[in-house]
Every structure is written in C-alpha cells, then in structure tokens.
C-alpha cells in the first residue's frame, strides 16, 4: 500500500504536481513527503478573499498541492473564510487576515499574490466604469506588495484589467521593485469561455480544445484566435464571428444573468486557480508551461498585451508571438488597439498623478 502510494506521488512529481488523491490523503507517508525538501514551500495570498471570487478561489487554492501556505486577506470577513477552508485536509496551512493592519503579515514571504479585490459590474456598466473605485484599491494593495513581498508574482484579476495592470506596473516602478516578468493580468476566463463555446458549436470534446485569446480583457479588446483552434472543425465564417462575439461578451452575459448580483465568480475562480497553478508550476521549474496572459509586451506597438506566455522560474520566460491570423482576426486586432491603448494610458496617468 505504502509502495503504491509512493509510486503515485513520484509519478505526480514527474508531472509537476502530486495527484489530487495524494494531496487530499492524510497518510503519514504523504505527510513525510510534503515535509521533505522535494516539494518547494510556496506561500500564496488571495487579496479580496472574502468576496464572490475570493471565496471559491480560496477553496480551489486550498486544493492545490503546490501551495504550502495560503494567506487570505480582505478588509473584513476573512477569519471566517479561513476557519472554514482551513478545515480541509490538504497540504496548505491557512491564515486569515482582516484590515490594513494585517496586510503586512498576509504578504510577507509570498511567492504569488492573487488580486480579486474590488467592485464588480452591474447590468449596463462597462468594466471601465469600475475604474474610479478599483484603481485606488489596486494601487494601495500593490504599494503594500512592493513593500512586503517585492519578488512575488502578481496575478491581477480586479477590473478593468486593461488599466489595473498598468497601474500596478507604475506603482512598482515608483517603488523601484518593478519586474515585468512578475506581473500578469488574468485573462484565463476568456480562454476558458472560448474553449467551452467552441466545443459546443463544433461538437468536439471540450477537454481537447485549445485556442489562444489575445489583446486585452474588455469587449472588443478580447480577441480569440479561432483560426488557430485545435482540433479544427472548419466552421463557417458566420459561426466564427458569432463565437468571437460571444467570447467578447461572455462577462456581460453573466452580469445580465445575475441581474444586479455581480459578475462571474465561480468560473472566474476556476480560471484564476488554473492560472495560479500554471504560475506555481513555472516557479517550480516544470517545463513548457504556456498560458495566455496580459503582460508587458513588445509583440505589438502596445506596451501591454495578452498573448501566449511561457512561464518559468522567474515568471514570464517568453512572450510568444501571435502566429498567423485570418483576415477577420487582423481586422479585430487593428480595431482593438485604440481602446486598449487608451485604457493603458488611463491607468498610467492615474498612477502618476495620485
Ligand atoms: N479578470 C477577470 O476575468 C475577471 C475579473 N473580475 C473582477 O474581479 C473583481 C472582484 O469581483 P467579485 O469577487 O465578484 O467582487 P466582490 O464584491 O464579491 O468581492 C470583492 C472583494 O474585494 C474586497 N475588497 C475591497 N477593497 C479591498 C481592499 N482594499 N483590500 C482587500 N480587499 C478588498 C471586498 O471586501 C470584497 O470581499 C471585480 O473587479 C470584477 O470586475 C470578475 C470576473 C472576471
Ligand atoms: O464582465 C465582468 O465584469 C467580469 C469579467 O471581467 C468577466 O466575467 O470576464
């Protein structure tokens, strides 16, 4: 029995992570394994952990065997979330921190900080309508990150991502801690949606679908590259247009369905956990970890752009190019640039005048 378990753990390690079954076991063998030096200790913080995204994200990160310490921070409510999630018998130790006085403790020693803090949309609002409130929240949290865990990777979920990532970059530049390899706008939900919608239309198994989504994270700045989708099902141009539009409007679809009770939380928590896991695998030296993310970029004339990114021990190892685009995608790319440019400039201006 013990031999079988050790073999399963070794197989998981070769894949980069112990299996979920191994992770959730409380066997003495597993405890010895986790206390050995073979699995790096990784502290992960969720800022905004008592919120609609924060709570299910805390749960999913608690299930991730790559996490050894899970730090849950919010302005209020985190002791309860931490007590609840902390009873789950997986590897990480959970701590809850509430209020600015505890932000230092929440952040010190972090390898990865995930930020889903801030207000969500209501029907009729754009993501940019959240700027006035969320820009300040992101600015103050990033100021604390620069102080207490300047080397952590940062996964920015708070909207408008097209502006909050440039704000974070400016805050880190001012604090002289900026490393473009360590700052990520989380656009994974766009990829998750593109895969789901495509699989439904093309009638292919969703688990097999791969499709890059580039640009940014709002409306037409979200550009799925269905010309590069695998497996290819040769859909009609009209179908590709409709799938593109549905991916671009995916967030609004959820906002309207929730009718005033917020925006995507559960699918976002899933997407955030997926991206955080990829970042941790990269940090741990797992080869060939590639995900789409909104990062500092020179693949277009825009200083921030979402595309496929290879993740490694220092964060971004390589920003991958766009690859060949269809005429429809080329048009979409040109159409998104002015909006994305102005969202980036708005973020930079905010950070430098306040
Ligand atoms: N990147 C993406 O794909 C997505 C981004 N979002 C964005 O994520 C953000 C959060 O959404 P929800 O969780 O639904 O909102 P929510 O309102 O349910 O939760 C937000 C949490 O942030 C906390 N918070 C506010 N100020 C804070 C501060 N200074 N420090 C720490 N925590 C603070 C609140 O107390 C609350 O618990 C929104 O801006 C939303 O637009 C949502 C879905 C997808
Ligand atoms: O639409 C929103 O406001 C939340 C979001 O970013 C998404 O669901 O993609």
Automatic annotation (TrEMBL):
Segments forming domain Lactate/malate dehydrogenase C-terminal: 187-350
Active site residues per record: 217 (proton acceptor)
Keyword entries, A-Z: Mitochondrion, NAD, Oxidoreductase, Transit peptide, Tricarboxylic acid cycle
Matching InterPro entries: L-lactate/malate_DH, Lactate/malate_DH_C, Lactate/malate_DH_N, Lactate_DH/Glyco_Ohase_4_C, Malate_DH_AS, Malate_DH_type1, NAD(P)-bd_dom_sf
GO cellular component: mitochondrial matrix
Domain Lactate/malate dehydrogenase N-terminal: 43-185
Residues holding NAD(+): 48-54, 74, 134, 157-159, 268
GO annotation (BP), single: tricarboxylic acid cycle
Coiled coil stretches, renumbered: none
Single GO molecular function: L-malate dehydrogenase (NAD+) activity
Entry EC number(s): 1.1.1.37
Amino-acid positions noted as binding substrate in the UniProt annotation, renumbered to this chain: 121, 127, 159, 193
Location in the cell: Mitochondrion matrix
Superkingdom per UniProt: Eukaryota
NCBIfam families (alphabetical): MDH_euk_gproteo
Subunit structure: Homodimer.
Family: Belongs to the LDH/MDH superfamily. MDH type 1 family.
Official protein name in the record: Malate dehydrogenase
Organism annotation: Escallonia herrerae
């Amino acid at each position: 029995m013990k031999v079988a378990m050790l073999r399963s753990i070794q197989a998981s390690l070769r894949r980069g992570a112990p299996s979920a079954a191994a992770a959730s076991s409380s066997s003495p063998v597993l405890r010895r394994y986790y206390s050995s030096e073979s699995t790096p200790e990784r502290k992960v913080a969720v800022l905004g952990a008592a919120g609609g995204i924060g709570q299910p994200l805390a749960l999913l990160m608690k299930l991730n065997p790559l996490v050894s310490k899970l730090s849950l921070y919010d302005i209020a409510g985190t002791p309860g979330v931490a007590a609840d999630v902390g009873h789950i018998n997986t590897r990480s130790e959970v701590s809850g921190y509430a209020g600015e006085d505890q932000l230092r403790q929440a952040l010190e020693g972090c390898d990865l900080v995930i930020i889903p803090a801030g207000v969500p949309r209501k029907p009729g609002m754009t993501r940019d309508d959240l700027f006035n409130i969320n820009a300040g929240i992101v600015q103050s949290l990033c100021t604390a990150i620069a102080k207490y865990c300047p080397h952590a990777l940062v996964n920015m979920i708070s909207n408008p991502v097209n502006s909050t990532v440039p704000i974070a970059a400016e805050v880190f530049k001012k604090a002289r801690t900026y490393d473009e390899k360590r700052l990520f706008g989380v656009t994974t939900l766009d990829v998750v949606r593109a895969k789901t919608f495509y699989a439904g239309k093309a009638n292919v198994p969703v688990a097999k679908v791969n499709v890059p989504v580039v640009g940014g994270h709002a409306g037409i700045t979200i550009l799925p590259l269905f010309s590069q989708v695998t497996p290819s099902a040769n859909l009609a141009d009209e179908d590709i247009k409709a799938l593109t539009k549905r991916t671009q409007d995916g967030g609004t679809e959820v906002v309207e369905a929730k009718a005033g009770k917020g925006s995507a939380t559960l699918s976002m928590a899933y997407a955030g956990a997926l991206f955080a896991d990829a970042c941790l695998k990269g940090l741990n030296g797992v080869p060939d970890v590639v995900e789409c993310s909104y990062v500092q970029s020179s693949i277009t004339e825009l200083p921030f752009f979402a595309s496929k990114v290879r993740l490694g021990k220092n964060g971004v190892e390589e920003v991958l190019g766009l690859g060949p685009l269809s005429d429809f995608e080329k048009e979409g790319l040109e159409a998104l640039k002015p909006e994305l440019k102005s969202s980036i400039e708005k973020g930079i201006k905010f950070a430098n005048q306040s």
